[in-house]
Amino acid sequence: MKAHSHHNFLKKLPLALFLSSVLLPLTTQAAHVPAGVQLSDKQEIVRNNGSEPATLDPQKAESDVESNIINDLFIGLISVDDKGQIQPQLATSWENKDNKVWTFHLRPDAVWSDGTPITAKDVVFTWRRLIDPKTASPYGSYLSSMHVLNADKIIDGKLPAEQLGIKAIDPHTVEITLDKPISYFLGMAAHSSLMPVSEVNVEKFGDKWTQPGNMVSSGPFKLSNWVVNERVVAERNDKYWDNAHTVINKVTYLAVTSGTSDVNRFKAGEIDITYTIPPILFDSLKKELGDQVHVTPSLAVYYYAFNTKKPPFNDPRVRQALALGLDKKIIADKVVGQGQTPAYTMTPPNTGGYHFTLPASATWSQQQRIAEAKKLLSEAGFGPDHPLTFDLLYNTSEAHQRIAIAAASMWKKNLGVTATLQNQEWKTMLDTMRQGNFGVVRSAWIADYNEPSTFLNLMLTGNTGNTSQFSNAEYDKALDDALTATSKDQVQKDYQQAEDIIAKEVPLIPIYHYVNAKLVKPFIGGYDNTPLGVINTKDLYVIKH
């Protein structure tokens, strides 16, 4: 998913778990309060969420700002627990035939927050809704990436959404048919864009169904209040199937965009978990707050995307030159400096157990890179007499501004290129990106599942996440070949070819691979300091203090 911040969580999913067809132990994700821990009488948490959510509709969301809340309000057929294991949610069990036909058995007693039954019909409605062109979902390509039968033809407008390979066998059984087997299907099925919504609820209220008082949800919390640009409040859903293991009664998500304000309100006791830690304050906060600073690795990449349809960025020489003109090590080590690593591939190291050979330029000195960049710009018609100028767009944030200032300074000093900084609020920038009204834009991607395709699929022709509008037949073929490869070695070669094409064509500049940094109050229990994914409020509790 798109990342609003420069620090985020992800799901770390061992590839092996996707190969199992049936879940045996029916353990659950929940708050585990150690023996002897005294709980506070007031089980309420305030989390900063970094921005105003663009939507709370699971099928229309595209970033962590939205999914952080959606993951508390809704559940999918399955989920992934803190150890990366598949766990039951709406489905209690499942089986598959040849990794191609999957059958999920739903909880017969599962109900929405208003007490009405959750049925297989709702699941089918939701998956069709996600792919229906009328929904215009940012994740419209996701079911195609999962290879659900007929997904591609529906996206192309050749078949109606009703022809998608999913059907309700009975009120509590869903059957999903793929056009080819994929080993990581279960991991993909846990994604928030596939979380069922109530057909009755959506049909009744239309676009207003996500408003407080209208929305019915399936998760451990239900929406109670939404003050635009200020806060979203959710209260415990006593109709949630595993409500007995929830401890928190109320969670408030604030829309504080300023990292400094986030920290100040944390210190003032108004925020329990920050959205991030501003790089400029990181060292001083480590000294001042010690164990309240939490830093974890993350399968995510921060990058600048080019609009490859817009001159001069339709010329790969210009794109390559700008990539070479950035000193990524300085950005990772000095500008953000919390443990991030310079990115020379789109896919973070060891994603799904794969390792990639870096492009030759990764081993060059910065002076070598600058010399090659100047040569490429000259070949493309740019130089002292005809300098390159363009706009660099980022969403409003001190951290993004700090990185953009550093990048613009490097381009000016190293190449004589002028990048004019522009910033927009998150929701506005998402619209700008969708409309293609940019030259270069800040973006980031957090793994939706632990396999390189979650990153590499972004550059596929026509993918809904393809901000750069990049299209390369050789690239598309490499990823298609990876799906039909019969050995991990061959998959590795196909993915390496895809990374090599990105390095050569540069539809985007990977800048660094993430860590996640947050401030967490010492009385918040259940916050697990490992690379787990979203922080589910139902896993948390407030210790007496």
How large is the count of helical segments?
Answer: 16
How large a portion of the residues is in β-strands, by DSSP E?
Answer: 15-25%
Low-pLDDT segments, ≥5 res? 6-28
Shape annotation: globular
Q: What's the main sheet like? A: 6 strands, mixed
Lateral strand order in the biggest sheet:
12-16-11-15-13-14
Structural category: alpha+beta
The end-to-end span amounts to 36 Å
Q: How many whole angstroms does the radius of gyration measure?
A: 23 Å
Number of separate strands: 18
Helix content: 25-40%
Blueprint (SSEs and pairs):
Elements: E1 44-48, H1 64-73, E2 78-80, E3 86-88, E4 91-97, E5 101-106, H2 120-131, H3 142-145, H4 151-155, E6 166-170, E7 173-177, H5 185-189, H6 199-205, E8 221-227, E9 231-236, E10 250-254, H7 259-267, H8 282-289, E11 293-306, H9 316-324, H10 328-336, E12 341-342, H11 366-379, E13 389-395, H12 398-415, E14 418-424, H13 426-435, E15 440-446, H14 453-456, H15 473-484, H16 488-505, E16 508-519, E17 524-525, E18 541-542
Parallel strand pairs: 1-10, 13-14, 13-15
Antiparallel strand pairs: 2-3, 4-5, 5-7, 6-7, 8-9, 9-10, 11-15, 11-16, 12-16, 17-18
Helix pairs in contact: 9-11, 15-16
